[in-house]
Design brief:
The structure is a single chain. The protein is mainly β and 205 residues long. It has a single domain, classed as Lipoxygenase-1 (Sandwich), CATH 2.60.60.30. 4% of the residues lie in helices and 39% in strands. The protein contains two helices and 14 strands; from the N terminus they run E-E-E-E-E-E-E-E-E-E-E-E-H-E-E-H. The strands form three sheets. The protein has a six-stranded antiparallel sheet, with no helix packed on it. It has a six-stranded antiparallel sheet with strand order 7-8-9-2-11-12. The longest helix has 5 residues, at 197-201. Residues 12-21 have low confidence and may be disordered.
Length: 205
């Protein structure tokens, strides 16, 4: 089973498919806003997975796009290098993460480029988490937190208001991009968890 260090140094439904063009690029964005002084860190993650009919699976750490998996944030075990601007990507450049933002009122995003995915990768599960040290925090503690996905034309394909729809959870599987017979499709999942990103990751490795 693949696991990641979940520490960051230096800090205290029903299935719907929307057809996209094959090799489409699309953007996943997460944003949050708090009306009080408590500091939250919301992160978005994605996996380059293979699904042969028994569920999506990841078999290498390089296929996990997560701030926990960068050499900068996790010097002892991270495998993904961080660019000078703070962004990072999977080796082939199919999944690119904006710099890790730890300030409310900002947003993080992932760009998915279907033309760059390794051969055999046919599903991209997408997750959003609250990073916390010690006591578990949930989306209920954030006044506004949301996640959305849009295609290359800017059309929004799906969105959740996490503070309302998933307030009792601290991890949500947003959905998956799936390579079907007609090209890439987005399938919403909307499944909440209480635990860590590794608890979820264990179901995919």
């Amino acid at each position: 089973m693949l696991t990641l260090s979940l520490e960051k140094p230096g800090e205290p439904v029903q299935k719907l498919q929307l057809s996209l063009t094959k090799g489409a690029r699309f953007t996943v964005k997460v944003h949050w806003e708090c009306g009080h002084e408590h500091v939250h860190d919301v992160d978005v993650h994605a996996l380059e997975a293979r699904n042969a009919g028994s569920g999506a699976k990841v078999d290498r750490l390089e296929s996990i796009l997560s701030t926990y998996n960068t050499k900068l944030m996790n010097p002892k075990a991270g495998v993904l290098p961080t660019n000078p601007d703070g962004s990072f990507a999977t080796p082939e450049g199919a999944l690119v993460h904006s710099p890790d933002i730890r300030e409310q009122g900002k947003s993080e995003s992932i760009i998915i480029d279907g033309t760059r995915l390794p051969e055999g990768v046919n599903e991209i599960p997408i997750f959003v988490t609250i990073h916390s040290q010690g006591e578990v925090e949930t989306f209920d503690e954030i006044e506004q937190a949301g996640i959305s996905i849009s295609d290359d034309s800017g059309q929004e394909l799906g969105a959740y208001q996490l503070s309302d729809e998933f307030k009792e959870f601290n991890v949500v599987q947003f959905g998956s991009a799936i390579l079907g017979e007609n090209g890439w499709e987005y399938a919403p999942v909307g499944r909440g968890f209480v635990g860590t990103f590794n608890d979820v990751l264990g179901q995919f490795s």
